[in-house]
Amino acid sequence: MVLTGAHYIYILFMIIILITMIMKKDTIVPCMLGVFCLGIFFKHSLSGAIVSVFNSLIISLNELGPIILIIAIMVALSKALEENNSIHYMVKPFSRIIKNPTTAFFVIGIVMLLLSWFFWPTPAVALVGAIFLPVAAEVGLPAIGVAVALNLFGHGLALSTDFVIQGAPSITAGAAGIEVSQVISDGMILFWVMALVTISMAFYTLRKDMKKGLFRDEILDKKHVRIKTFNKKAKIATLLVILGFFLDIVAMYKFNLKGSDASALLGGTAIFLIIIIDIMNYKKHSLDKICENIIDGFVFGIKIFGPIIPIAAFFYMGDAPVTAVFGEVLAPNSQGLLADIGMALSQAVPFNNFAAASIETIVGAITGLDGSGFSGMALAGSLASVFGNALNASIGALSALGQIAAIWVGGGCLVPWALISAAAICGVSPLELAKRNLKPVITGLIVTTIVAMFII
């Protein structure tokens, strides 16, 4: 495979972007400059390059738009449920089975996992933390233990898998040029290996420190964690949500709905639930409240994905969307910039599964250092495409591996400024929480990478 100037421009800016991430700087500017330079090369004019930059953003927004929509709608629903204490009612039964620190840790984690799959971790963490913190205190689980459970099950396991909303695998799959279902199915073993190793080690070290009496003198501030009162409206809203999403799951199974179709079903159901719940709560003021909740959801969605759109724009140029921006500019035998680079790599240097898996994990982890996790998944998907084509390996499994590394590091488990929400609701230091997560997460990544070497 003969590489052209466009391929070398793409490689150069991938390296620049990676270095920028290592330096903990924002990568939007180098991403946009990369598209601009490709535009200069393909269009041979300044105006054409400038137009290409904007068109690349449109392509990126088209790719990410459905993800932004479903997340915004789910957050809007969580706002509606929070306002009448329905979320609190949902988790009330779990407090009856919490008898000791072990059950507290895993019940909190599982509830956080389930809510995060449907509503995302950021809105879920405050709700679950507020309810379970005083319950955990009564059975002897320290605040840092609650924070670890919220963090690892929510921002780690739930966000890295994202089976329901499918925001994370959609970005990774889009950059890798494969189906979302391929990332999920091929990476299933890796998702659970990472979770089991990391969470088990985190709980073991926590229990070990508890036995040493490390948290004996801990005093919990209970002023901000009172359990809310429950009412009839909360009970009705809870039943409606459970029934609505249960019927969605039945429909997904019966009609084999996956990917965008499954997300659309969940999003449409959530819209009607928001309307019904707000009408029930606010009656004549419901129209204004519905609008307010949806605005809050979209503000959250844009805040999360605003920086990701221009970053993803560059990495999408490595695959099919390049023709939508620049036209039919590639050679007839080209499979896309990234695929071409992968073919050339396989022909030029000795490469194997062990090197591919190691590099995918390292790059994914480095991209997570910006504290987002999501901003690096486009690069992880792109590299997976390169390595997969070079080795004839599973692009889905490699994409999942990069996704795991990016999310577990940057999604809110290691980077202190990314895990502030869990630390704040539990009244612990973000640095202390990051330090406690460090060894379990790194151990999990090492074990998961080793497993990946043998399955890709």
TrEMBL record:
Transmembrane segments: 6-23, 35-58, 64-81, 102-120, 126-150, 189-206, 236-256, 262-282, 294-317, 377-398, 405-431, 437-455
Keyword field: Membrane, Transmembrane, Transmembrane helix
Protein name (database record): Transporter
Organism encoding this protein: Romboutsia maritimum
